[in-house]
Amino acid sequence: MMWINKQALMACLLVTACIAGNAKADVPFASAVDAAVRNYNRATAKVATGGAPGAAAMAKLKAAGIEHLVDFRTEGEGIAETKAAAEAAGLSYSSLPLGRGRPGQALVEDFAEIMQQHQEDDVYLFCASGNRAGTVWAYYRKQQGVPVEIAIEEGRAAGMAASREAWLKQ
Question: 29-169: which CATH architecture?
Answer without folding.
Answer: Alpha-Beta Complex (3.90)
